[in-house]
Amino acid sequence: MRIFILRFFYLTAMVTLTAGKSPAPGNDPDTSFRQAVSVKYELPEELKGAQLKKLAVDYNGIVYLLTDKGLYRAYETKVAKDLRYTPLSGRIPLDIAVQEGTGHLYYLYGNQFLTNGYAGAPYGMLPEGKYSRLAVASDGKVLLAGEREVAVVENGRLREIGQTMEALISVHVYKGAFYGLTAAAVYRFSGGAINRIHEGEELRAIAFREKEAVLGTDSGYYGIGLSPGSPVFPLQNRVPVPQITALLSVNNVLWAGTPLGVFMEEPAISGSPGTVAAPGLTAAPRQTDTAGSGAPRRQYRYYASKRWLDQDRVTGLAAGPEGNVFVLTPTGLNEIRFITQTLAEKAAFFQHKIRQRHIRYGLIANLNLRIPGDKTTSEMVDTDNDGLWSAFYLGSQAFRYAVTGEAKAKRYAWEAFEAYERLLSVNQLKGFPSRTFERKGFRHSDPERWRDSPDPEWEWKGHTSSDEFVAYIFVSAVLDQLAAETGEEKARVATFIDKILTHIIENDYYLVDIDGKPTMWGRWNPEYINWYPKTIGDRKLGSETIIAGLQLGYALTGKELYKTEAVRLMEEHGYLENILIDLNDIQPTPGYVYMGKDMGMGGWNHSDDEMAFLTYWVLYHYALDDDLREKFSRAIHNRWEIELSERNALWNMITLGTEGSFDKASAFWHLREFPVDLVRWNVRNSHRKDIVLLAPNFRGQSTEELLPPGERMIHRHNANPFKLDGGEGGKSELAGDEFLLPYWMGRYLEVIDAAETF
Predict the structure, then answer these.
(1) Which of the ends of the chain has fewer CB neighbours closer than 10 A, N or C?
(2) Hey, what's the signal peptide range on this chain (predicted)?
(3) Alpha-carbon distance 706 to 644, whole Å?
(4) How far apart are CA 522 and CA 501, in angstroms?
């Protein structure tokens, strides 16, 4: 991995980004890149329960679907009966095939083959019911096959050439030569003879590329030469799913269908680009690489689950234009389509998506989908952390405004801030921020935590936590730095954070709910913070968040109290020492039970990472002096190093914009691989044979290399990206603000160039 390390420190006691940006490690033009997206075609009612037999794509890019109810084709994203040629519309072909070279579609019926190409001239009459498969060469020769019988039509004459030893699975044409596949052999049909060129076991599929044939089996795939049929490369069994049901070569890139999805073979690699194991982790023994000792290991892209296919059992593949691939299952037609876009275009997509269906009273909203995957059935609902999630969107719009000066970006940021202000005003407590709010009777999450508002039309949710506090200081900081331009705007931000800090200090560093008791997680009192040993992350994180907040309060309000309290906590209660705890020392520490929960158990807390990085932006930029800023930089770098294996763009942008370190390759990889479909489908990867598993560890890093985001379940930044299985059955959709914030940060920090005006 190439890591760009830039260490720098500001020379003034209080640095705001409006005064000067962090130096960037060289910006990259926002060049276009290809990203896979899923298209699922809608089948007509009469095909429900029908047998979907075969796919073919002609030279016009028309997608044909052969069924036991006739020939259908794709129109946009729908499938309909092909009625264009009236004489054929009522007939049901036994097989269809695309002529090699020309792309003309040929039809095989019980007693005839024909095509509509060449003005409809080529056709042939056949013995009734003898042949059920065909392949067509570019010179016009037609191969016909039954269960074992093989014949060739040339110059209008049918010539039978014999039988194969086993039942044929499929017939093919490649570079003018005809081939047949059985479960035990590959045959070449030429010169009026049948040649058995290769014998194998459990053969299921075949594809051709260059001078080789690739054979799919129940245990993986391997390659043979087309001349003698000798091996070209051995069995590849370190693949996502070894049971191969279909093979396809698209521009010499191999695709494989399986009972559990489809995968694509990427170019051979000798290692992973920019992926590392977390410190202290070692890989479990690798599976044997059958390509041979020292040979490059193949890497795969895996498309499975309803994010990509209507179901995972793949029965057929066909090549479309631009390298796209059509995937047939027993119940549907799907397409893995590659779109070309820039990061700016991707950001515009998510921006539009959010404004269309994810804004609830200014807050970012999760969508519940009444029908899994159907966005027309979506409803916006509250969540446990509306304040925290909304910080990503507000932050993105503040950075967007700083980059572009667009009035609507500023408007969106301040509309979100109105919702934060309402968190304070909707309840009857002084300076206590609600978790969220809703019109009375329509609450969704954690019903026991809701309270009546003084306004009889509304309810508010209590039990506010440190997660929300992190959001309050982050949004206040970025608004102050980037979007608060008038005295009135700056006063609004200062008043907001002042009320919350006043509540915390007056309540002995607790958030105190309507029942007069501290909330479970809103606790920064020294007795509570230092109760934790240094091996439990709460001690470090709690110190970081409250010191960041007090420094921010001092900068925004000028109240000496906040500076005095920050210094007191750091000097008298060890909060600075807590901030500098080495994260490598965090480990399981059982026996520290608080309110019935053992705080030292449960593995690495990825939610803490999210809170810490948002806090670091505030902690660093509002440091009371240069000496503190240098110490905070050490803490930031320590966590950045720990998190390298997760390849998170936001963690990298925040670190770049503060301490200065940057894993550029991973940041761009994450943004480009960030999936377009954010429906939370169930996803499973634990069965894959192409991943290298690690032994169970405290970090929860399950694999040596992080899977691309499009192959993992959709989750927020507070979850473990190495979790292999999970999802919500397509019943919810995330917004995309987790993409927008690092994108606009990258634009602001000048590591992402603008491809075009947003």
Answers:
(1) N
(2) 1-19
(3) 11
(4) 12
| Residues forming a β-bridge with 78 | 42, 75
Sort strands 450-452 and 458-461 into parallel, antiparallel or unpaired.
antiparallel
Nearest to 257 by CA among 182, 207, 298, 322: 207
- Determine the number of helices (DSSP H) and then strands (DSSP E) in the chain: 15, 42
Residue environment code for 29-62, b if the CB has 16+ CB neighbours within 10 A, otherwise e:
ebeebebbbbbbbebeeebeebebbbbbbbeeee
Helix/strand/coil for 288? coil
Sorted by sequence, the CB contacts under 8 Å of residue 638 that are 6+ apart come out as: 582, 583, 584
Determine the Cα–Cα distance for residues 642 and 653; give it in Å rounded to an integer.
15
Looking at residue 722, its amino acid is F
683: CB partners within 8 A, 6+ apart = 304, 305, 307, 711, 712, 713, 725, 726, 727
Which residue type is seen at 413? A
In the chain, what are the domain boundaries?
4-32+343-748, 37-273+287-340
Query: Strand locations in 477-604, DSSP E?
Result: 510-512, 518-523, 593-594, 597-598
Q: pLDDT, tens digit, for every residue of 600-613?
A: 998 999 999 999 99
How many beta carbons lie within 10 A of that of residue 378, not counting itself? 19
Q: Determine phi and psi for 178, rounding to 5 degrees.
A: -100, 145
Q: Which two three-digit tokens encode residue 608?
A: 């803490």
Beta bridge partners of 215: 206, 222
Q: At what angle do helices 537-557 and 606-621 cross, to 10 degrees?
A: 30
Q: Which of 622, 576, 688 is nearest to 263 (CA)?
A: 688
Q: 231: how many CB neighbours lie within 10 A of its CB? A: 13
Cα 302 to its chain centre, rounded Å, is 12
pLDDT digits (tens, 9 = 90+) for 56-82: 999 999 999 999 999 999 999 999 999
SS (H, E, C) 66-134: EECCEEEEEECCEEEECCCCHHHHCCCCCEEEECCCCCCEEEEECCEEEECCHHHCCEEECCCCCCCEE
Residue 563: left (phi > 0), alpha (psi -120 to 50), or beta?
A: alpha
With bands split at pLDDT 50, 70 and 90, how would you rate the model's confidence at 230? confident
Return the closest-CA partner of residue 58 out of 102, 88, 112. Answer: 102
Per-residue DSSP letter, 628: H
Residue found by looking up tokens 């609507």 in the block? 408
pLDDT, residue 518, reads 97
Q: What is the pTM of this model?
A: 0.91
Q: 159 burial class (0-12, 13-18, 19+ CB within 10 angstroms)?
A: exposed
- Closest C-alpha among 569, 579, 584 to residue 629: 579
Helical spans, DSSP H, in 317-406: 343-357, 386-404
CA angle centred on 647, ends 681 and 690, rounded to 5°: 60
